[in-house]
Specification:
The protein is mainly alpha-helical. Helices cover about 35% and strands about 0% of the residues. The chain contains one helix and no strands. GO terms for molecular function: proton transmembrane transporter activity. It holds the Pfam family ATP-synt_8.
Length: about 55
């Protein structure tokens, strides 16, 4: 079963993963998120019971 033999593809997958992580990690790490989480507390919502007209 050739798919269980890691020799032909494992080194290539590992090399590709290392190259991509070395290329993209420095580009992605300096970005800051645009939507910062707010520190406001959520006010509990006041729910009213639904009046079903057909009951």
């Amino acid at each position: 079963m050739p798919q269980l033999n890691p020799n032909p593809w494992f080194f290539m997958m590992l090399t590709t993963w290392v190259v991509f992580s070395l290329m993209f990690q420095p580009k992605l790490l300096p970005h800051t998120p645009t939507n910062h989480p707010s520190n406001k507390t959520q006010a509990p919502s006041k729910t009213t019971p639904w009046s079903w007209p057909w009951i």
